[in-house]
Design goal:
By secondary structure, the protein is an alpha+beta fold. It has a domain of about 160 residues. The chain contains 12 helices and 5 strands. The protein has a 5-stranded antiparallel beta sheet with strand order 4-3-2-1-5. A hairpin with a 5-residue loop joins β2 and β3. α1 crosses α12, α3 packs across α7 and α6 crosses α7. It is elongated, with a radius of gyration of 23 Å. The two termini are about 20 Å apart.
């Protein structure tokens, strides 16, 4: 029992120190979007910091019409995430492999399990997504959906084979599509998109995307779509595990330290033979 208590003390101290150290460390790659533009799908005019993005989200006007608020939120999300070449960039450099000082549970699974979804991890929590600053279409859509949920705007995540967007309901009850990854408002609904995809090409071209980029995108729009109510529905197991792991990363060292403390206190007070 004494050996177990000593091990608990050592491991507890190490894990707590790792957590405290993590509070001082960013989970965003230094120079993101500035010094690594050869690794990006889209070159941003400016890369917002986490603080800038969160300030912009807090400044969204809840009294504004839904279309105006969603348009502003869509632009904020597009500005907040840098679209990297997800399967090609270095997972440690870009923090796709969650660092141990950020969450040692997610790091260990990504490092040792061989599960690709943890080797290059997509956060469920929208604030962590923005803090890391990278993402692809699914990340941008879950972030936007979470923001709209906070403003009680009915929305759903629409996942095609190769692209993910968001459909929301405006004040008149009309469903409208937005693409936060591309920063585009589509001014139509899912039924209209599936019936006549070419009708929706203009907003992308007007936003400055090349015809080749738009052609590639619209191949995805011709595939069947899966509908998800929100981020929780989109990635249920990961959503739950992520939130639990961020609690357990603090709870585990506390329990280990408490166990060792109780043991040594008991030994100290125990009557000597």
């Amino acid at each position: 029992m004494k050996i177990l208590a000593i091990l608990s003390l050592i491991v507890g101290i190490l894990l707590m120190a790792l957590n405290v150290y993590g509070l001082t460390q960013p989970i965003r790659k230094p120079g993101l979007g500035v010094t690594d533009q050869d690794q990006l799908r889209f070159i941003p005019d400016q890369v917002w910091s986490y603080e800038q993005s969160m300030a912009a989200i807090r400044s969204l006007d809840p009294s504004a019409p839904a279309r105006e608020l969603v348009g502003d939120a869509n632009a904020v999300v597009n500005q907040s995430l840098v679209h990297v070449d997800w399967p090609e960039v270095d997972p440690q450099e870009y923090r796709q492999l969650v660092p141990p000082w950020e969450n040692y549970f997610l790091w260990a699974i990504g490092r040792f399990s061989g599960l690709p979804q943890f080797e290059r991890y997509h956060y469920a929590n929208y604030k962590r997504n923005i803090e890391r600053g990278i993402g692809i279409c699914g990340d941008a859509s879950t972030v936007l959906s979470s923001i709209l949920d906070n403003h009680q705007i009915e929305n759903r995540i629409v996942s095609f084979r190769g692209h993910v967007i968001v459909e929301y309901e405006d004040d008149a009850g009309n469903r409208v599509l937005v693409d936060p990854d591309f920063g585009v408002e589509l001014n139509g609904n899912l039924d209209e998109l599936t019936q006549d995809p070419n009708h929706f090409r203009a907003p992308y071209l007007e936003a400055g995307y090349s015809p080749d980029e738009v052609d590639y995108l619209f191949e995805a729009y011709r595939t069947p779509a899966a509908i998800f109510d929100d981020t929780y529905h989109f990635m249920t197991k990961r959503y739950i595990f992520e939130e639990v792991s961020y609690v357990l990363k603090w709870l585990l060292p506390v329990v280990l330290l408490a166990f060792s403390g109780v043991y040594f206190l008991w030994r100290r007070r125990a009557p000597k033979p």
